[in-house]
Design brief:
Length: 170
């Protein structure tokens, strides 16, 4: 008897403005479950971001370069529609704290309505990353605060350049 194995693929959508070590933790946890992970930068023209879509893709690509089974791309529109186009059966979302749950639960139910064949998988980051958010990191970085323990090295460097800080201490 032969067993047929199919590739288990998931989508991890987000703004990733910028990607943090908390995001990377979720990515690594997802890769323990799935064979292939599509990391998708959501482009929302109503939302002002610090980094352009192209910069965010480049930062993510640099941060995950040593990981196998990862694709970095972008999308506009509905997450469920993009998930369908990629042929994934799961959408990965990170939950840092209880306050994230209500919004994420609502989104998961809507995605299920739009794409019943996919499930949303909630993953919690390591405790040391539960308080991290890209917004908080940008605020700290803007004032030359110490951020190196929160971000991949390529992102620390990019923030220094973005804020035009000489002798950026990251």
């Amino acid at each position: 008897m032969s067993i047929k194995f199919e590739r288990k693929a998931a989508l991890y959508p987000g703004s990733f403005d910028p990607i943090t070590n908390g995001h990377l933790d979720i990515i690594k946890r997802a890769l323990n479950i799935f064979d292939y992970l599509v990391i998708a930068v959501a482009v929302n023209t109503d939302k002002k971001t610090l980094f352009t879509k192209e910069e965010r893709i480049e930062l993510i690509t640099g941060a995950v370069r040593d990981l196998d089974g990862v694709e970095v791309t972008s999308f506009t529109g509905l997450t469920a529609e993009f998930a369908k186009s990629k042929g994934v059966k799961a959408i990965v979302r990170g939950l840092r704290m209880v306050s994230d749950f209500e919004y994420e639960f609502q989104m998961a139910l809507m995605n299920r309505k739009l794409m019943p064949e996919a499930d949303t998988i909630f993953l919690m980051p390591s405790e040391k990353y539960t308080y991290l958010s890209s917004s908080l990191i940008k605020d700290i970085g803007k004032y030359n605060g110490k951020i190196e323990c929160f971000l991949p090295p390529n992102v620390v460097e990019a923030l220094g350049k973005k804020f035009q800080i000489k002798n950026y201490r990251g």
